Amino acid sequence: MKTPYWTWLRFFALILLGLSPIASINDLISSWKIFPPDVLRKVWEVYPAFAASVCLTSAGIVFIVAYGIRAGSILWKLDPSGKSEAQRYLLLRLGVNLALIFISVAIVETTLSSEDKKSIFADYGSMVIAPLISETVFFIIWWLYFLKSKRVKEIYG
After folding, report:
1. What string of DSSP letters covers 68-124?
2. pLDDT tens digits, the chain, 157 residues: what are they?
3. Less Cβ crowding at N or C end of the chain, within 10 Å?
4. CA–CA separation, 60 vs 86, rounded Å?
5. What are the C-alpha distances in Å from 138 to residues 36, 48, 54, 89?
6. 86-93 — which CB contacts under 8 Å span 24+ positions?
């Protein structure tokens, strides 16, 4: 089996090993910096469920990144379990992200008044819709790649 060094498979591994962790860490830092500390403290005191949502989301992101690094290293080495690990990662990533989005929306919707939502979130809808769309598209593209790719079939059977 002759496999070129650079393939879509290696690109996916590179996403999991480098691009995704960098982007996720940047997103985490950015999301914690959205509000000035005094505003964040006030929101957390008034709405402890919102604080729990933020912490839960941060923990979920760290879990996805850690599992992605594991799956990416297995793929990079062209380990026989690479395809199943990548598919497990895709399912976990989609499931965890969708669960986190819906939990966060439920917490925000049930704990914050509409005026508070407007003052805290300038564009609340896009904060929900954009991640839903991007996660679903990411999942579909890569899931189909692992199902239909000749290279994946050649390497993993």
Report:
1. HHHHHHHHHTT-TTHHHHHHHHHHHHHHHHHHHHHHHHHHHHHHS-HHHHHHH-TTH
2. 555 556 888 889 999 999 899 988 888 887 777 767 777 777 778 777 777 777 888 888 899 999 999 999 998 888 889 999 999 999 999 999 888 888 877 777 777 677 766 666 666 666 778 888 999 999 999 999 999 998 888 888 7
3. N
4. 18
5. 32, 32, 23, 12
6. 86/12, 86/142, 86/146, 87/143, 87/146, 89/16, 90/139, 90/142, 90/143, 90/146, 92/64, 92/67, 93/64, 93/67, 93/68, 93/135, 93/138, 93/139
Q: Which residues contact 16 (CB under 8 A, 6 or more apart)?
A: 68, 69, 71, 72, 75, 89
CB atoms inside a 10 Å sphere around CB 44:
16
Distance CA 141, CA 64 (A): 18
Buried b (16+ CB within 10 A) or exposed e, 5-26: eebebbebbebbbeebbeebee
Q: What six digits make up the tokens of 138?
A: 């990411």
Query: Tokens for 65?
Result: 């990144």
